[in-house]
Structures are given as C-alpha cells and as structure tokens.
Amino acid sequence: MTSNTTTQKRNKRHPLVAFGLAALAVGGVGAAITSAAWTDNTFFSAPAAAATFDLQGSLDGKAWTQSGNADAVELVIPASQFANLLPAQTRTIDLWVRNESSVNAALTSQVAFASNSTFTTKPTASVSGLITTLTPTGSTGAQDQFQLTVTTPADWAPVNQGKSGTVVVTVSATATS
Questions:
Q1: Which of 74, 138, 67 shows the shortest CA–CA distance to 104?
Q2: From which domain of life does this come (predicted)?
C-alpha cells in the first residue's frame, strides 16, 4: 500500500509542478517583452582642456623671460643699480611682470637676500606697486610695472664697507578663474 500511495501523491504533484514551471516561463517571457518594448538614449559630449599658466618677467617692459628656476635666475638686474651703497641711501628700480596664461593670476611677492650675503647688517629690500590680480595676455592689464626698493640704514656700520649680497625678488602666481 505504501508504493501505491506514493505513486498517487506523485501524480497529484506533477500537474502542480508543471503548472508552476509554465507560469514562471510565461512570466519571464512577458517581462522580457515588456522591458524591451521602448528604449531611447540621449548622448552629450563636451571637449575639455586644461588652462595654460605662464608668468614672465622683464627688466625693461619689452623683452620678456620665463625665469622660473631659483637656481638659474635669468632676470638679473645690472650690478650698477645697487653698487656703491652708502648709509641712509634709497634706490628704486622698475620691474615688470606679464601673465602669458589663459586664466587670471593672483600675485604675491617676496624679497630676501641670498644666503651668501656678506653684509653684517643687510639693507632693507621691498617690492611696491605690484598688482594683486593680473588678467591673461590679450586683456587689459596683462602686464604690470612695479618697483624694487633697497634702503640702507642711516647708522649703517662701517663693517659693511666692501660687503655685498644678492637681492632675490620672487613674484609668485596662483591660477584663478
């Protein structure tokens, strides 16, 4: 009786399993038909390019040089400009900077004597008149004239006679939009 009962149960389950599999198959096909019925795309493209950034300097406002290496400065002010300094003396020269970039440049400056200076008391060196934002070449204000001033103290000690030093002016630029 056990084998007859087991066979009857299997025969009752078979149509249920077959129906379940058929329902899954029809549902899958229906889902595939539904998902592929309508599709569409829209594409966009945009060329992208990095900005150019190049700050140049000049000793006369006409001849421009990159001079971007502190170990090999190409913009060397003639020695005669600051030769034979005396106590309480001030000398000023003009310098130029130009933005050869495709974006604005935010400018800052630093002035210092090189480490090989032999002065006991160094003269004061400063930059004045440097613009803070320089527009790209081709726009108004693409170049700027500023001044380097060297001043010796009124009580400059005699031990500074015959001493020397190199003033290094660094104009730094940061690209801005």
A1: 138
A2: Bacteria
The answer to whether the predicted template modeling score (pTM) of the entire model surpasses 0.85 is no
**147, 129 Cβ separation under 8 angstroms:** yes
Residue 68 has phi, psi (to 5 degrees) of: -100, 15
Which DSSP helix (H) or strand (E) runs through 31?
Answer: helix 2-35
Q: Write down the CATH number for the domain with range 55-176.
A: 2.60.40
Name the residue ranges covered by the structural domains of the chain.
Answer: 1-40, 55-176
**Token pair for 128:** 């004045």
Query: What one-character-per-residue DSSP string does the chain give?
Result: -HHHHHHHHHHHHHHHHHHHHHHHHHHHHHHHHHHTS------------PPP--EEEESSSSS-B----TTS-S----GGGG-S--TT-EEEEEEEEEE-SSSEEEEEEEEEE-TT---SSPPEEEEES--SEEPPTTSTTSEEEEEEEEE--TT--GGGTT----EEEEEEEEEE-
Q: Please, what is the average pLDDT of the chain? A: 87
